[in-house]
Amino acid sequence: MDQLAKYIYCIIPCDEDRIFDVTSIGGKSYEVSTIRHDGLAVVASDSPEVTYENTRSNMIAHEKVLERVIQQFTLLPVRFGTVADAASPVESIQNLLRSRCQEFTELLKDIEGKVELGLKAFWRDEKAIYSEILAEHPEITRLRNRLAGKPTEAIRFQGIELGRMVKEALGLKKSQEAAKQLAKLLPLAERTRENNTMADRMIFNVSFLIDARSEVEFDRAVDVLDAEYGDRIGFKYVGPTPPYNFVDIVVNWEDLTQSCLR
Question: Per CATH, is 115-241 categorized as 3.30.70?
Answer without folding.
Answer: yes
